[in-house]
């Protein structure tokens, strides 16, 4: 069987999760009549210290709706240069909100209040209007890093002082909370809106939730409808989310431990350059230096039923998750130890 470390999105629902989905109470979600969806939304809002929440098909849609809440034509979104909204959402800010995105240089995906302050602009008919700061926590391309709370607080306070709104792409917020040993609300509450994804570390097949203020609920509902995200008996999917919040949050610590052990094993191989250690969450990035062949590594791993994500020509990412256990970890490390001297 394939050991798939491509992403934490590859997990299949467990039997217990499927059972919860099977017995879910359902109704018409578009009409606000799906009890399981409503229960999930309430639970997420409460967990994040936000007033309200809306169940959506994907984190990409949640981010797209959030940007439209705060930005219109000619407005500007500030994002880390390696942020998901800037690089992997098909230019959604420009398409949906007709907003520009200004990137903040940072290889970790984390930036300080000075980076925000430096990007404020004079009010002028020539300039786009900075309106929104997007923070990604954990940072995906930044190595799965959780933001230090002091940094979050200082970015939030700088943004507030200058009238900018704040959106948290917390697709992996629960990874951050578990790694930092903080309640999710401590991480989420400084923000005007918060995306959490159910189909990554939490192991659901589909779904994300956008948390927001009560005052924004009508606008979010309208944008959900507009973008084709309104559903019918979505309680089947929401039930997976309710189950995951109860059973799959604390166990993220196991994914983090396995990622650490994987990185430690790879660090022993002189043919690889492991990046961004020490690791806090579930991602391991490494590079294959010039004198070795990344193609041969990829093919050799594939022959041994191991798949990673290849970010660039020589750069790989491995993401640990619910469907990756200690035995598989040993298998992957054995495969690397055997292959590396040959490539
Ligand atoms: C940080 C981050 N935000 C948003 C998304 C979008 O999630 P989805 O592909 O489920 O829409 C991803 C997906 O990998 C992500 O890593």
Structural description of this entry:
This protein is an alpha/beta fold. It folds into two domains: 14-247, Aspartate Aminotransferase, domain 2; 251-342, Aspartate Aminotransferase, domain 1. Helix content is 40%, strand content 17%. The chain is built from 14 helices and 13 strands. The strands form three sheets. It has a seven-stranded mixed sheet, with helices on both faces. A hairpin with a 7-residue loop joins β9 and β10 (283-287). The structure holds pyridoxal-5'-phosphate. The site of pyridoxal-5'-phosphate has 11 residues, from α3. Pyridoxal-5'-phosphate is lined by residues 58-60, 63, 84, 136, 140, 169, 171, 197, 199.
What fold name stands as the CATH topology of the largest domain?
A: Aspartate Aminotransferase, domain 2
In this entry the ligands are: pyridoxal-5'-phosphate
- CATH H level of the largest domain: which superfamily? Type I PLP-dependent aspartate aminotransferase-like (Major domain)
Give the helix proportion (percent range).
Answer: 40-55%
Write down the CATH class of the largest domain: Alpha Beta
**Whole-angstrom Rg:** 20 Å
Mean of residue pLDDT?
Answer: 97
Please indicate the percent range of residues in DSSP E strands (runs of 2 or more).
15-25%
Overall number of domains: 2
Strand order of the largest sheet: 2-8-7-6-5-3-4
The total of helices stands at 14
Shape: globular
- The tally of strands reads 13
Q: What is the end-to-end distance?
A: 24 Å
Poorly predicted tracts of residues: none
H/E element sequence: EHHEHEHHEHEHEHHEEHHHEEHEEEH
Largest sheet: 7 strands, mixed
CATH architecture of the largest domain: 3-Layer(aba) Sandwich
- Structural class from helices and strands? alpha/beta
């Amino acid at each position: 069987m394939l050991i798939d470390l491509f992403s934490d999105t590859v997990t299949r629902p467990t039997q217990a999760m499927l059972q919860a989905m099977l017995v879910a109470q359902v109704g018409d979600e578009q009409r606000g009549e799906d009890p399981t969806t409503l229960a999930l939304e309430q639970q997420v809002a409460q967990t994040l210290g936000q007033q309200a929440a809306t169940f959506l098909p994907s984190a990409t849609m949640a981010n797209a709706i959030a940007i439209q809440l705060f930005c219109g034509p000619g407005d500007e979104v500030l994002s880390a240069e390696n942020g998901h909204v800037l690089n992997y959402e098909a230019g959604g800010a420009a398409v949906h909100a007709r907003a520009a995105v200004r990137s903040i240089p940072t290889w970790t995906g984390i930036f300080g209040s000075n980076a925000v302050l430096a990007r404020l602009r004079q009010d002028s008919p020539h300039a786009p209007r900075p309106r929104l700061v997007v923070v990604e926590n954990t940072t995906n391309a930044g190595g799965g890093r959780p933001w230090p709370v002091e940094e979050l607080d200082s970015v939030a306070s700088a943004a507030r002082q200058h009238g900018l709104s704040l959106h948290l792409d917390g697709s992996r917020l629960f990874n951050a909370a578990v790694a930092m040993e903080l309640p999710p609300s401590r991480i989420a509450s400084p923000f005007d809106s918060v995306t959490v994804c159910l189909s990554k570390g939490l192991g659901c097949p589909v779904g994300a939730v956008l948390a927001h203020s009560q005052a924004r609920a009508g606008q979010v509902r309208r944008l959900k409808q507009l973008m084709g995200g309104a559903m019918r008996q979505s309680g089947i999917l929401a039930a997976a989310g309710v189950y995951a919040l109860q059973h799959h949050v604390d166990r993220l610590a196991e994914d983090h431990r396995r990622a650490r052990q994987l990185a430690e094993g790879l660090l022993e191989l002189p043919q690889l350059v492991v990046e961004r250690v020490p690791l806090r969450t579930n991602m391991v990035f490494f590079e294959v230096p010039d004198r070795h062949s990344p193609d041969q590594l990829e093919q050799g791993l594939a022959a041994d039923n191991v798949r990673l994500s290849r970010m660039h020509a020589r750069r790989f990412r491995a993401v640990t998750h619910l469907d990756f256990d200690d035995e598989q970890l040993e298998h992957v490390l054995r495969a690397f130890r055997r292959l590396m001297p040959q490539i």
